[in-house]
Each structure stands twice: as C-alpha cells, then as structure tokens.
Amino acid sequence: MQSFVKQLARFWPPANRRASDKIDQCLARAQDDVAAGLGSPEYYADEYRRREIGYWEHILGWIARMPRGSRVLDVGAAYGTLAVFSRRLLDAEVTIVDAVPYYQPAALLAREGIRHITRNIELDSIADLGLFDLVIFTEVLEHLNFRAAPSLAKLRDALVPGGSIVLSTPDAESKWGRFTKYYARIEDLPDADPNAAWIDDHVWQYDRTELEAALSNAGFRIREVAIARGNDGFTHLNARAVRPRFR
C-alpha cells in the first residue's frame, strides 16, 4: 500500500518530497529486515506487512517530526517495525515493552541496540525505565483488558513534560463496529486485577469520542486525531497527544 505521505508528496515542495522519500525508504528497509529476522516470517511477509501501514499511516510523519536522538518507548511493539524505523530514522534510543517476548525479531533488535523488556503495561510499573520523549502505542488500546485511563496515565508519566504519545486503534465507527463480546458498554470495563484471566483478543473497540476521553482522562492534551485507511473500510484512529509541561 502506498503511504499517505507518499500520496501527498507530489503537492509538496522538493525538500518535503525528499523527506517523504526518506520516510518510505526507511520504512521499507525496516520491514525487509523485520521479515528476514523472524523465525517464522510467512504471516508478516505475506499478510501483516502490507496491512500495518494502513493501521498507522499518519504516525510515520509524526515520528519523523521528533528530534534526532529522541528517547522512544514502544509499548506493545508487535513485530517491532516502528521501533526499528524510529531507531534508524531518528538515531533514537529505543526501548520496547511488551507483555509477550516472542513476536519481535530478537537478533535484529540486539543489532540495532533496541532494549526489549517483557512486562504487562496494565499490571506492572514502568517507572524504573526513566523518561522518554516519545511513546509509541499502536494497535494495543483495543487489547487492554481493563479501563484504559490508568495504563495511559502510566505512559503519560513515562514522558518528559511536552513529550508525545502516538497511537493507533481500530475505529469502531468503521466496519470494525462496536465489539461487545466481553462487555456491553465501555463503562463495564473493570479496574486492573492481577488475578483475572488474560483475554488475548480485542476487548473494546473505541470510537473517536471514547478515545479522546480516555486520553484526556489520563492527563494528555490531544494535538491531532486522524483516520488511517486500514483495509476495505476497516479504518483506524491515529492520535497524537502530549504530556502538558505544566499542570
């Protein structure tokens, strides 16, 4: 799928078009290396690679705005594409936190100097990891088993004042629809419980109003919300928010 920034590049000045080319080239190389580094690459290479850009297409440009040398925390990194992309594009110091250790290409992360930590963001503290300039939180929100605001507040506290979070999640107002397999209303999502059985599924799919409320309740200031095209009408919400410098 051609990237959103690539489609717009023909309307931009030459310097911006060069920036778009750099983003696309960096992404393609990251995807190539992720596919090559996976023990069983078939699903990523044949399916997920072409889909993931449709989930977070606006986020590439938001990451590219960050200063070189930024400290980046990728929470729930899946195959690690954006972690590798950020490491290379920004010469960033990147840490991955994920509840499971087996999706990412471990050897590639080690070569890139990307730290991987296995923790559950809903149940475990991340305060010991230090502060970051950017948190990446893509395709994770819908998997949270409990109310989102406390976990999002942990991510806010992991940012320096003025730091940014970028996230993507399925758009409940698209073909994804309202998902009520586990809960009938968003208000029914429980508080975090370490004794609860883990649900490995989409637990709640957010519409824009619910997403903005979750971010605001966690103490973020929302800067941008956009629609990513997803696939065949299954669009995704992309959001960028910041930790306020003063409260």
In short:
By secondary structure, the chain is an alpha/beta fold.
How is this structure best described in words?
The radius of gyration is 17 Å and the shape is globular. The termini are far apart. It has a single domain, classed as Rossmann fold (3-Layer(aba) Sandwich). Helix 5 links the parallel strand 1 and strand 2. Helix content is 36%, strand content 22%. A seven-stranded mixed sheet has the order 3-2-1-4-5-7-6, sandwiched between helices. It has 247 residues and is of the alpha/beta class. The longest helix is centred in the N-terminal third of the chain and has 24 residues.
Salient structural properties:
247 residues, alpha/beta, Rossmann fold, globular
Order of strands across the biggest sheet? 3-2-1-4-5-7-6
> Mind describing the biggest β-sheet?
7 strands, mixed
Q: Indicate the radius of gyration in whole angstroms.
A: 17 Å
Low-confidence stretches: none
SSE pattern = HHHHEHEHEEHEHEE
What's the mean pLDDT score?
A: 93
Quickly count the helices.
8
Predict the CATH topology: Rossmann fold
What would the principal axes of the Cα set say about the shape?
Answer: globular
Helix content: 25-40%
Counted up, domains total: 1
At CATH's second level, what is the architecture?
3-Layer(aba) Sandwich
Strand content: 15-25%
CA-CA gap between termini: 41 Å
CATH level-four homologous superfamily name? Vaccinia Virus protein VP39
Topology, number of strands: 7
Q: Quickly give the structural class.
A: alpha/beta
Question: Any idea of the CATH class?
Answer: Alpha Beta
